[in-house]
Amino acid sequence: MNYLLTNIEWDTDGVDPDELELPTELSINLENDGIDDLDNVSDWLSNKYGWTVNGYSCDANEVLKP
């Protein structure tokens, strides 16, 4: 299933996330991206981009169609 993550907030130790080219919005597919469930999205983001995630929005109404 595809989801749209928005308002992704990164803990970058004071570095501007734009300078690090970190996304603030991202489309994910749980199965294709190897994410067990939505509870593991923060860990997946941190592993993929190398920075801790403070938070993000993921609304069931924002589900994207493939």
Chart the SSEs and their pairings.
Layout: E1 2-11, E2 26-29, H1 41-49, E3 52-57
Antiparallel strand pairs: 1-2, 1-3
- Total domain count: 1
Share of residues in strands: 25-35%
Class by helix and strand content?
A: alpha+beta
Strand order of the largest sheet: 2-1-3
Describe the overall structure.
The structure is a single chain. This protein has one helix at 41-49, and strands spanning 2-11, 26-29, 52-57. It is α+β, with helices and mostly antiparallel strands and 66 residues long. It has one domain (2-62). A three-stranded antiparallel sheet has the order 2-1-3. The model has no long low-confidence stretch (mean pLDDT 89).
Quick tags:
66 residues; 14% helix; single chain; 1 helix; alpha+beta; globular; 3 strands
A few lines on this structure:
With 66 residues, the protein is an alpha+beta fold.
